[in-house]
Amino acid sequence: MSVYKSIMQGLDEAVKYQEGKIDARKTKITVKQVESFSSEDIKQIRKQVGLSQIVFASSLGVSKKTVEAWERGRNTPAGPSRRLLQLIRDNPEVIEQYMIKA
Fold it and tell me: What is the band of 1 on the pLDDT scale with cuts at 50, 70, 90?
């Protein structure tokens, strides 16, 4: 099916749904809250995956000084970093996908 035909089909289905002529599939999802992490939590997550501060920082896309500040409680991670910490804590193997062994 061409892109044009696909778009037209989608628009046609949207109009029919709006008019009540067809039912649409509906899926309800809930997204987990982004958690907050204490300095000890962050250190524990890093040690759980067995990385130095510099490698851990690199894997998160932040500086080593940022990880040091988090682990000493001088600073706290913001939204995206908190979500990454949550993902790594819950799925430690995910970080291995981004490590290149020489």
Answer: confident
The distance from CA 39 to its chain's CA centroid, rounded to whole angstroms, is 20
Residue with tokens 């044009």: 4
What is the C-alpha to C-alpha distance for residues 99 and 101, in angstroms, rounded to an integer? 6
- Contact at 8 Å (CB) between 100 and 58? no
Please give the angle made by the CA atoms of 99, 101 and 102, to the nearest 5 degrees. 140
Supply the DSSP string of the chain, one letter for each residue.
--HHHHHHHHHHHHHHHHTTSS--------PPPPPP--HHHHHHHHHHTT--HHHHHHHHTS-HHHHHHHHHTSS---HHHHHHHHHHHH-GGGGGGG----
| Residues 7 and 47: beta-carbon distance below 8 Å | no
pLDDT-derived band at 50 (thresholds 50, 70, 90) equals very high
